[in-house]
């Protein structure tokens, strides 16, 4: 693992664990919501698949609600599962020249098909040499493979026909417009063509430059005569049966039968259900932990702030009290001296007796006793009141 990848992983982990894991909790909650939405979509597709009839090509017209008075008008589309063999649309014309021009031919095996996908992958070899990577000695001899792909996708109009019947009388045309579903393609050619090294290959490897080592050529086709299932909206257009993909469905053309599709969607539903429960539970736990930690941190911050305020207030009060004590400790007549310390002016009156005989500090010390009593009448006191001169 390179230093850049390690730095990226460290940054992502720090970001995920920031705010005591709140970012991670939000990400898990988002994943849980996406899983629930996907679960609803798959469950809806499973219900529709259960209700969709599974028929052969010859039985399609009998289950569609057709307007027999005018077959040129398109009928209402109905979700069906139809199984048949792949044939080129030109096969229904019966003309050999049209048949040859209406199919695709694999360059590797010369097989005829209606869908052809050719992928050419250029494989590069990159050697982090002495000049290219001097900072990490462990990666001097490491090689990283990089690939560049170029795809060619071609298709011709094709139909699904009843298997083994010639001439073709009953068929359904497959409409591929707007379909992004995976196709049941068969790999017929897979070969790696090596690239001969040039005189500059050694220099490119030494200085850390990449150089091509091979060209991977692969062909996938949908061959003629292959038996597949089509799941989609079937209707009659200009008197011809036509089926097109349904965006809410995960399948369009597949090698699986209806029962196999039901089993596959059922397993997906279970996986999504338990994944949603797991992600939701973990996200709730992480968010609860993050909220609790941040709440406790906020309470500690608030207590510290209140403590600082009280300390500042007590300091200000003590300072003002010291100033008053200095003022009271000046030239005080004998009749106004505190009977306890005989130094400061009388400032506190006891409740309920009402005697004004003590200064502020002495009254506070008397109130701190277990059974505070007035020093004059010896009556038990509840509190004292500060007396101010007008």
TrEMBL record:
Keywords: Membrane, Metal-binding, Transferase, Transmembrane, Transmembrane helix, Ubl conjugation pathway, Zinc, Zinc-finger. PROSITE patterns: ZF_RING_2. GO terms for molecular function: ubiquitin protein ligase activity; zinc ion binding. SUPFAM superfamilies: RING/U-box (SSF57850). It comes from the Eukaryota. GO terms for biological process: protein ubiquitination. Pfam families: GIDE, zf-C3HC4_3. Residues 338-378 form the RING-type domain. The keyword DNA repair does not apply. The chain crosses the membrane at residues 271-292. This is RING-type E3 ubiquitin transferase. It comes from Prunus avium (Cherry). The gene is LOC110768899.
């Amino acid at each position: 693992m390179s230093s850049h990848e390690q730095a990226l992983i460290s940054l992502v982990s720090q970001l995920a664990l920031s705010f005591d894991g709140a970012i991670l909790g939000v990400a898990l909650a988002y994943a849980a919501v996406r899983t629930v939405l996907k679960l609803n979509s798959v469950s809806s597709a499973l219900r529709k698949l259960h209700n969709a009839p599974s028929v052969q090509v010859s039985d399609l017209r009998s289950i569609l609600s057709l307007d027999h008075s005018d077959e040129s008008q398109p009928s209402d589309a109905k979700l069906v599962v139809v199984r048949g063999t792949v044939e080129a649309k030109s096969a229904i014309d019966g003309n050999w020249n049209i048949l040859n021009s209406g199919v695709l031919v694999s360059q590797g095996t010369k097989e005829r098909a209606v869908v052809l996908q050719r992928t050419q992958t250029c494989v590069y070899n990159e050697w982090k040499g002495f000049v290219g990577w001097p900072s990490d000695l462990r990666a001097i001899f490491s090689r990283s493979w990089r690939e560049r792909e170029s795809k060619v996708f071609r298709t011709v109009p094709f139909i699904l026909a009843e298997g083994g019947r010639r001439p073709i009388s009953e068929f359904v045309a497959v409409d591929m417009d707007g379909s992004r579903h995976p196709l049941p393609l068969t790999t017929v050619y897979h070969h790696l063509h090596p690239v001969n090294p040039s005189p500059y290959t050694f220099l490119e490897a030494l200085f850390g430059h990449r150089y091509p080592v091979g060209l991977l050529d692969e062909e996938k086709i949908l061959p003629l005569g292959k038996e597949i299932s089509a799941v989609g909206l079937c209707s009659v257009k200009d008197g011809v049966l036509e089926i097109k993909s349904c965006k809410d469905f995960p399948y369009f053309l597949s090698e699986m039968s209806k029962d196999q599709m039901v089993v596959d969607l059922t397993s997906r539903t279970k996986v999504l259900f338990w994944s949603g429960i797991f992600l939701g539970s973990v996200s709730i736990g992480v968010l609860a932990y993050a909220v609790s930690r941040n709440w406790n941190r906020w309470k500690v911050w608030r207590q510290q702030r209140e403590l600082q305020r009280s300390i500042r207030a007590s300091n200000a009060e003590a300072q003002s009290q010291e100033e008053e004590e200095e003022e009271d400790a000046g030239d005080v007549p004998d009749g106004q001296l505190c009977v306890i310390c005989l130094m400061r002016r009388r400032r506190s009156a006891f409740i309920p007796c009402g005697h004004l005989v003590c200064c502020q500090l002495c009254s506070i010390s008397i109130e701190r006793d277990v059974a505070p009593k007035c020093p004059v009448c010896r009556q038990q006191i509840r509190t004292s009141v500060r007396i101010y001169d007008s």
